[in-house]
Amino acid sequence: MKAVIFDMDGVIVDTNPHHRTAWREYYQRYGKTLSDADFVKYVSGKHNNDILSHLFAGKDLTAEESKQLAHEKEALFRELYSKDITPVVGLIPFLQSLKKANILTAVATSAPVENLDFIMDALSLRPYFDVLLNESLVTHPKPDPEIYQKAMSMLGVDPTESVIFEDSMTGIQAAKASGASVVGLATTQSLDELYPFVDDAILDFSQMTLDRLEKLVKIF
What we know:
Elements: E1 3-6, H1 16-29, H2 36-43, H3 48-55, H4 63-81, H5 91-100, E2 104-108, H6 113-122, E3 131-133, H7 146-155, E4 162-166, H8 169-177, E5 181-185, H9 191-194, E6 200-202, H10 210-219
Parallel strand pairs: 1-2, 1-4, 2-3, 4-5, 5-6
């Protein structure tokens, strides 16, 4: 194993409850409701353009309109999350162990760069990552594997040398399609829901060790 790649929302930080609140408030601004079931189906792990297509179904949004609407929603999310921001349990010690072992690391998120910068700087995480990728650096969002393929290319590693941590089904599809081993985080789905689609699954990073990862890659 040479590299470990992390999704951000639901992996590095458990932002889903705050994203759910932000999207629910945003839907209400436009006279619609967003149930928990609809959040999982239409929002979790999805690119903002896809979510906005659901919110504004039947309306053709221009690229500029979509960009502005997404910007407004993400600003609302950052405002809501700023007072509660915290890493997923065990993340920092796990990142420290990866660095100590000279394993390359990357973040590959469908979030905008403003959110990525917000999380990295608020938690002082930049020193732990060799590569940071956000939505603007790829053409095809998840479930397309492009962002993970690009992360591996930038790190100079092959899929068989890499492990990806994901939480959403959309992200897991992208990670699996990239050819890497995939570990699911049970922040969005339960462990039982994750196991059929991933190579391993954990509640948080306190359950993950380098030995467990190495065995996973060797089996894969």
